[in-house]
Amino acid sequence: MTGTTEEEDPAATDLAERKMRFLFALRSRGVTDARVLNAMERIDRGLFVKGIFAERAYEDMPLPIACGQTISQPSVVGLMTQALNVSARDTILEVGTGSGYQAAILAELGRRVYTVDRYRRLVREASDLFRQIGLTNVTAMTADGSHGLPEQAPFDRILVTAAAEDPPGPLLHQLKPGGIMVLPVGQSDAVQSLIKVTRGANGFDYEELRPVRFVPLVEGLGSE
Predict the structure, then answer these.
(1) Which of 72, 75, 99, 146 is labelled catalytic?
(2) Residue range 83-102, pLDDT digits in tens
(3) pTM for the model
(4) Where are the domains of the chain?
(5) 75 catalytic residue (yes or no)
(6) Which option is the CATH number for 10-212: 3.40.50.150, 3.40.50.1000, 3.30.2010.10, 3.40.50.1820?
């Protein structure tokens, strides 16, 4: 009797190929840190993209999400995470939860992640996703991110996913000595630069990484 083999599911095969191309695109755009690539392979971006844009979840492009915000381009997420140089012992603050995708990747790399957003809806939806995928070391809160999170400070690492004209003073002060902050800086209607800030013994060192485009960092809480 001749054995039969199950036919492969074309949809599953297509999804696997899209995910493989996704990781290849990250590497080709400079995301080379093995820990970051592994985290981005484990965290499925498709879970964080809803509605009509779900089909484009594995393309290297920013996409709209609720509350007029965006989920960042994956290669930019990877490059920002890489620049942050997270260790397994680090406590991290993320300003701008958005879809929750960036915070989930940070949670794969660090000890503890606090993420804040001005929109309650985004915090609620991201928290649901964190529970769904079993991330227990990330806490999402509704707060004005420009003030940081003083009750949990200081932080080993701070990541800001919205652009300010200058690095906000409260965030600089909440960074531990030796700590790193990565953020976009510049006017919202002009070219922005991704900046890496390292807190040294005698002040802050600034390194310009690349041009980027992010939504502006807005003070106060959102209406949704």
Answers:
(1) 72
(2) 999 999 999 999 999 999 99
(3) 0.90
(4) 10-212
(5) no
(6) 3.40.50.150
